[in-house]
Design goal:
The protein has about 350 residues and is α/β, with parallel strands linked by helices. The chain is built from 13 helices and 12 strands. The chain has a 6-stranded parallel beta sheet with strand order 2-1-3-4-5-11, sandwiched between helices. Helix 6 links the parallel strand 1 and strand 2. Helix 2 packs across helix 3 and helix 2 crosses helix 4. The radius of gyration is 26 Å and the shape is elongated. It starts with a helix and ends in a 17-residue tail after the last strand.
């Protein structure tokens, strides 16, 4: 086999086989209008036959565009950040961009600065940061970046351009559902205190109860894990018979732990205690019982996050004001059911 057969085909190889100039092949690749359709079809056929792939480095030198976006992420073992990362990568590819991802163990001023420097050296045109903690958002706000930065998964009330699911609305949907089913009070197992989404879910829960003139009961906290949900569930089981009939849990993994703890304590779900989760992980419909939960549209977050970043890169006015909030959806399953007649004064 000759050396020419071992190397990948070049634009010059395509031009020779198609019987056109190098410039014509470049125009076809760039979708230039001044190319005859017959010539365009012949060049595209040769490109497919030869398996030609345009050299991204050469294209970047010629256009001063790398068509590469950076993503900074952490906690990607958790369902929310992992789903957000996948959605961002999928949306970027759909727009014709490559993605360079930096995964960090923790999001601090130092690690974020190093990540931005690394991505800058790689020639990215902009960065999306999956920054769920308040400390990470504060650090990003203080750093100066040579390219646009968009934040996703950070809840509401931040100054950086951002896209995320409306966590407060999701919490209101969950809490209203339980109140409308006749529960006089709704307990809440919240996520870690530094997580903005956890804070927004707790705020939505509390505001819904207060709007119904219901004093919010004691708030419990977990770390998103089933184990922390199990331990909280053991504590919650002690309140059954003393006013506890419904629990809104800040994510489905913790809800799984709560369900097991209640079951081991002889508490039936939903007959004795109704449980609502958050996220709608793929396994939630197979819990015992299947879990009522709040579904987040991560695909929409990815698409809107990439769209916002590209608008900033290209200097276009944003299609929607930031922060952009995606509406969640309540998915009702067997872990809740009408507890009694709907009490008066419950907002729907």
């Amino acid at each position: 086999m000759s050396p020419a057969q071992l190397r990948p085909p070049t634009m010059a190889d395509v031009a020779r086989r198609a019987g056109v100039s190098h410039q014509t092949v470049s125009r076809v690749l760039g979708d230039h209008p001044n190319v005859r359709e017959e010539t365009r079809a012949r060049v595209l056929r040769v490109i497919e036959e030869m398996g030609y792939r345009r050299n991204s480095s050469a294209r970047a030198l010629a256009t001063r565009r790398t068509r590469t976006l950076g993503v900074i992420a952490s906690d990607t073992t958790l369902y929310g950040p992992a789903s957000t990362l996948f959605a961002l990568e999928e949306a970027a590819r759909a727009e014709g961009y490559l993605v360079s991802t930096v995964s960090l163990r923790e999001l601090t001023m130092a690690t974020l600065s190093e990540a931005l420097d690394h991505l800058s050296d790689g020639g990215v045109e902009g960065v999306v940061a999956i920054a769920p903690q308040r400390s990470a958002v504060d650090a990003l706000g203080e750093l100066r970046s040579p390219f646009p930065v968009v934040v996703v998964g950070s809840g509401q009330g931040i100054d950086i351009p951002s896209v995320g699911v409306d966590q407060r609305l999701g919490a209101r949907l969950a809490t209203r559902h339980l109140l409308a089913a006749g529960h006089r009070r709704v307990w809440h197992l919240a996520g870690p205190e530094d997580w903005l989404e956890a804070a927004d879910r707790a705020a939505g829960w509390r505001a819904t109860l207060e709007a119904a003139d219901i004093e919010p009961p004691l708030l419990l906290r977990g770390d998103w894990s089933p184990l922390s949900g199990y331990r909280a569930g053991q504590e919650l089981a002690g309140w059954v018979g003393r006013g506890l009939t419904a629990v809104f849990v800040a994510n489905d993994q913790m809800a799984l732990g709560v369900l097991r703890a209640l079951r081991e304590a002889g508490v039936r779900t939903p007959q004795d205690v109704a449980v609502v989760g958050f996220d709608d992980i793929p396994e939630s419909e197979f819990f015992a019982p299947p879990l009522t939960t709040v579904r987040q549209d991560f695909s929409a977050v990815g698409k809107r996050g990439i769209a916002l970043l590209l608008e900033m890169i290209e200097g276009r006015p944003p299609g929607a004001p930031s922060p952009i909030a995606i509406e969640p959806q309540l998915v009702v399953r067997a872990s809740t059911f009408p507890h009694a007649a709907q009490p008066e004064g419950v907002p729907l």
